[in-house]
Amino acid sequence: MSLSDALNDIPLGSRQVGGLVLLLGAAILPHAANLGAPFILFFLVTALWRLGSVRWDTGLPGKWLLLLLMLVALGLVFSNISLRDGRLVGTALLIVMLGLKLLELKSHRDMYICIFLGYFVVLTQFLFNTSLWLALYLFTLSLLFTALLVGVNRCRFDPRAILASASIQIAYALPLALLLFVLFPRLNSPLWAIKLHDDTAFTGISGDIRLGDIGRLSQSGALAFRADFDSEPPPPAHLYWRGPVLWKFDGRTWTSGEDVKPTRSVAVDPESQIDYEITLEPSGQHWVFALDIPTDFPDSLSLNGYRQLLSAEPVEKRSLYRLSSHIRYRLDDLSALQREQGLQLPPTVGERTRALAASWRVRHPQDDRALLAEALRFFNQETFVYTLSPGVLGDDPVEQFLFESRRGFCEHYASSFTLLMRLAGIPARVVAGYQGGSRNPIGGSLSVYQSDAHAWSEVWLDQEGWVRVDPTAAVAPERVENSIDLAGSTGGDRIIFDSTSVSWLKRVVRGGGWMVDAIEFNWNRWVLGFNPERQKSLMQRVGLSGLGHYAPAVVLSLLLVTGLVVVFVLSRRYRGVETDPLKRDWNRFLAKLRRAGLELPPWLGPEAVLQRAQTRWPGQVKDLREITRRYVQLRYGTLSSPAFRKQLRAQIRQLRIP
Amino acid sequence: MNALRRRFHRLLRRQRLTPTGPARIDRRHVYILPTRYGWLFALLLVLMLVASLNYDNNPAYLLTFLLFSLAANGMYFTWRNLYGLELRLHSPEPVFAGEDLAIRLHPSRGSRPALAFCLAEQVSLSDLEQESAAVELRIPTRQRGWMQPGELEITTSYPLGLFRAWSILELAEALVYPRPASEAELPPGGSGEQDDKSSEREGDEEFYALRDFKPGDPLSHIHWKGVARERGLMTKQFSGPGVEEPVVIDWDTFAPNDAETRLSLMTRLVIDAEQAGRAYGLSLPGSEISPALGTRQFHRCLKTLALFGSKAT
Question: Mean of the pLDDT values across residues A437-460?
Answer without folding.
Answer: 84
